[in-house]
Design brief:
alpha+beta, three-stranded antiparallel sheet, 3 strands, elongated
């Protein structure tokens, strides 16, 4: 079974799934059963069917930037700021390779408001 682009389970997605009581095995089983039944069976379909936010992979937060410390200073870049053409990969290549330490900056997901649950499913 071939998955559509951008629906591969990433570690971030598995964290959100576990937060809501689902494991990778359960996802695979559900997707297999749906596919055999001729029903929609993508990863996004699983999230939707279980009331989970696919935008943030049910974590409630998205990476919005990166901050780092190198020998010269502490720096940061907000990736979601208007007009910022940066990607995390380009920042890694250009800045983080020499960083003493670095970490991501997170923001609440704009779809679920930080719950990881679709607004229509919120309890």
């Amino acid at each position: 079974m071939t998955e559509p682009k951008n629906t591969m389970i990433r570690p971030h997605a598995s964290t959100g799934l576990m937060k809501h009581g689902y494991g990778i095995g359960q996802v695979k089983q559900w997707r297999t059963e749906q596919s055999r039944a001729g029903k929609p069976s993508s990863l996004e379909d699983f999230f939707r069917a279980h009331g989970l936010c696919f935008n943030c992979h049910a974590v409630g937060q998205k990476i919005s930037g990166v901050k780092w410390q190198d020998p010269a200073a502490v720096s940061s870049i907000e990736l979601l700021a208007p007009g910022v053409p940066e990607s995390i990969a380009s920042i890694h290549q250009r800045e983080l390779k020499d960083a003493v330490r670095w970490d991501y900056i997170y923001t609440n997901c704009e779809v679920c408001g930080g719950t990881g649950v679709l607004p229509s499913q919120a309890r």
